[in-house]
Amino acid sequence: MSSLRLAVIGAGVVGRSHAQRIVEAPSCSLVGICDSDPKCQDVATEFNTGFYTDSENLLQQQELDGVIIATPNASHGTLASVCLTRGVPVLVEKPISDTLDGAHAIVEAAEQAGVPVLVGHHRRHSTAIRQTKQLLDDRAIGDLVAASLLWALKKPDEYFDVDWRSRRPGGGPVLINLIHELDTLRFLCGEIDRVFAQASSQTRQLEVEDSVSISLSLQSGVIATLLACDSTPAPWSYEATTHENPLYFESPENCYFFLGTEGGLAFPRLDIWRHDDPDAVGWQHPLTQHAQEIASRDPLEAQLEHFCEVIRGNAQPLIDARDATRSLAVAHAVLESIQTRQPVKLTS
Ligand SMILES: NC(=O)c1ccc[n+]([C@@H]2O[C@H](COP(=O)([O-])OP(=O)(O)OC[C@H]3O[C@@H](n4cnc5c(N)ncnc54)[C@H](O)[C@@H]3O)[C@@H](O)[C@H]2O)c1
User: Fold this and answer.
1) Mind giving me the DSSP string for 75-140?
2) Which domains are present in the chain?
């Protein structure tokens, strides 16, 4: 099988991490890096590949099988359309866009061109997430009643030296980080029907929030909460607890809790708590903790492998533009609720 020719647009933190996986993967090769900042020539040199400051030049000069877009959120729509109209499949980083109009434009461009788009909600490729989904689908804790998600960590001060991360539109933890938790909640527990959110910018005093509390109702009748704070040193984030990203301190804690009619499940240690004796149920009886065998694999590597399968026509995107637009709509509903101080119902 011939090696797929891939390029990365955006040579920042995430673009470099994609480039690294491409050069390590047996099924594809990195034939170019594009970044509007000429200083990123160094990144292309490091990866021993061609450098372009303009995406049109990249697409004209290279015959590409696929492109990974890892630029700021507001540029995803334009860059994805440029690739799709040329028939080049795209893996676009999350969120699919900063606005719903931008997301719809990508959906339309993909559907008109008949070219696949995979969106970089890489947690859907996480083995811990997939095991959790299997456990919930298999009713390991009975019928799901509620879920509580916690995402708390301290972003280093220099994170905010990159201007777009602290400004609207595009910046802020709801669109940058919580879009992951919201997409994961949808993936694991089903569609979200209504949100009510409150936020505070008290710690950093930036235009964007640093703490958010969200109450969510799901179409299934399940209710959930998501509490997030990116200005506190805490061991309860997805990143710290799953050990999937070596940049993060490794915490032994859990960060998500699923409550069912027959027990509870803590993620990512995948501990199931339940009564073993059906005749001894209730708060006076001890719960038994059942540990699960946890498989582990780099989700970005798994995502790249899946993207290659999508390009070859062997798989449908695990999360396509339409699906990712739904996750973006939930994030926007959260932002709207913060602003209006009212619950927001999502259209189905
Ligand atoms: N999947 C994840 O877990 C994850 C994590 C962090 C960020 N992200 C997403 O990845 C994207 C990039 O984030 P980042 O933190 O790497 O940003 P970054 O600021 O570190 O890098 C972005 C790069 O894109 C370049 N760029 C901007 N506009 C461009 C254009 N029109 N054409 C070519 N290059 C352009 C910039 O010069 C910069 O080098 C964002 O959408 C972000 O939400 C995903």
Assistant:
1) GHHHHHHHHHHTT--EEEESSS-SSHHHHHHHHHHHHHHT--EEEE-GGGG-HHHHHHHHHHHTTB
2) 4-123+300-317 (3.40.50.720), 126-296+329-345 (3.30.360.10)
Give the torsion sign (CA, 125, 126, 127, 133). negative
Whole-angstrom distance, CA of residue 176 vs CA of residue 10: 16
Question: What pLDDT, on a 0 to 100 scale, did the predictor assign at position 175?
Answer: 86
CA of 307 to the centre of ligand 1 (A): 19
pLDDT tens digits for range 281-319: 999 999 999 988 888 899 999 999 999 999 999 999 999
Residue 265, ligand 1, Cβ within 6 A? no
Rounded CA separation 228/179 (Å): 12
Pairing of strands 344-345, 192-200: antiparallel
> Which token pair is 300?
């970005």
Kindly state the tokens that stand for 152.
Answer: 């708390």
Q: pTM for the full model?
A: 0.93
Q: Calculate how far, in angstroms, residue 166's C-alpha sits from the geometric centre of ligand 1.
A: 14
- Per DSSP, the three-state class of 289 is strand
CA torsion 292-298-303-305 (nearest 10°) is -110
Give the residue among 60, 52, 114 at the shortest CA–CA distance from 82.
60
Task: Compute, in angstroms, the gap from residue 17 CA to the centroid of ligand 1.
Answer: 11
Cis peptide bond upstream of 89, omega within 30: no
Q: Is the distance from the beta carbon of residue 184 to the nearest atom of ligand 1 less than 6 Å? A: no
What confidence tier does 182 reach under pLDDT thresholds 50, 70, 90?
Answer: very high
Query: Of 258, 278, 200, which is closest to residue 232 (Cα–Cα)?
Result: 200
Ligand 1 near 9 CB (within 6 A): yes
DSSP state of 70: -
Query: Rounded to an integer, what distance in angstroms lies between the CA atom of residue 136 and that of residue 128?
Result: 12
Average pLDDT over residues 35-60: 97
Ligand 1 pocket member 56 (CB < 6 A): no
Tell me the CA end-to-end span of the chain in Å, nearest whole number: 42
Give CA–CA dist 315/165, Å, rounded.
33
